[in-house]
Design goal:
The protein is α+β, with helices and mostly antiparallel strands and 285 residues long. The protein has helices at 23-27, 45-58, 67-79, 154-165, 209-219, 233-237, 269-281; strands spanning 4-6, 9-11, 30-38, 41-42, 85-93, 111-118, 133-139, 170-174, 180-183, 187-192, 195-198, 225-228, 241-246, 250-257, 260-261. A hairpin with a 2-residue loop joins strand 1 and strand 2 (9-11). The protein starts with a strand and ends with a helix.
């Protein structure tokens, strides 16, 4: 039987209810996290929890859950939901107030909600059977605090839907200076002449846990070179390889950006090497 978690209790999904006065419902006032788990083993758990705490602090939500409490919630959900590969969604809103007011209210308890969803399986490093991505390319029109993993995702949803309308699986974004920021639900990497590059972290970019894991793993292998720096739209379109990365995609090879075919239109050799290393070492960090 599937279970969800809501404010200290486990229950069937249809029993989970929140007030329409919850600020998460009214304002998107909260943060969230997604942690992948393969055969019961969570990927990057400590880093995900640290990002939850950073997000809560950034928007001044006081929640005293410890890492051990988050782990217990995740483990309970994993064990009570079917499927060997699962994503655990964690959601914290500011809570329910008696009135709708833009200012942060005092003295209300945060709403904490969590559930599992089935993942299709671990991504493969086989170029012939890997899931590949065609993506759209648009100017980034979201808010200026994208480093916070906010539940207010309408800007991301609009960009993602724009790509979906064009038959694509993602939309890569660039700022007013034609610098790549990220994709609507992923981070971005490029490869040119054997060198891997990803945009440097700032307020325009969510510090992805998968992005961090890839950087750590690549840096531990001296035969690979990685740079965190400004990546331009022109560099993206002329790259030998492009990847989009997230908790559910891992290292997703992009074969086409807008009307531009990337490389040979299939997963590249550096992608295959990095996805293989990621699969081997991802639980070591």
């Amino acid at each position: 039987m599937s279970l969800v978690y809501l404010n200290g209790e486990y229950m069937a999904p249809e029993e989970a209810k929140i007030s329409p006065m919850d600020r998460g419902f009214l304002f998107g006032d909260g943060i969230y996290e997604v942690i992948p788990a393969y055969y019961g083993k969570m990927l990057g758990f400590d880093a995900h929890v640290a990002r939850i705490q950073e997000g809560l602090a950034a928007i001044e939500i006081n929640l005293d859950y410890t890492g051990e409490q988050w782990r217990a919630i995740c483990d309970t959900l994993i064990s009570n939901n079917p499927g060997p590969n699962q994503g655990i969604y964690l959601h914290v809103s500011r809570g329910t107030d008696s009135k709708r007011n833009h200012a942060y209210p005092r003295g209300i308890a945060p709403t904490v909600f969590a559930f599992c969803f089935e993942l299709p399986g671990e991504p493969t490093a086989d170029a012939h059977s890997a899931t590949t991505y065609t993506v759209s390319l648009e100017q980034d029109r979201r808010w200026q605090r994208c480093n916070i993993k906010s539940t207010a995702l309408l800007g991301n949803v609009i960009h993602y839907q724009s790509g979906a309308r064009e038959g694509n699986k993602e939309t890569i974004l660039f700022n007013a200076k034609d610098e790549i920021t990220e994709a609507s639900s992923s981070n971005v990497f490029i490869v040119k002449d054997g060198v891997i590059a990803t945009p440097v972290l700032d307020n325009q970019i969510l510090p992805g846990i998968t992005r961090w894991l890839i950087c750590e793993i690549v840096r531990s292998h001296s035969e690979l070179v990685i740079e965190e720096r400004v990546v331009t739209k022109a560099e993206l379109l002329s790259a030998d390889e492009v990847w989009i990365t997230s908790a559910t995609k891992e290292v997703g090879p992009v074969v086409k950006v807008a009307d531009t075919v990337i490389g040979e239109g299939k997963p590249g050799k550096i992608w295959q090497q990095v996805q293989t290393l990621f699969t081997t070492h991802k639980f070591d960090y």
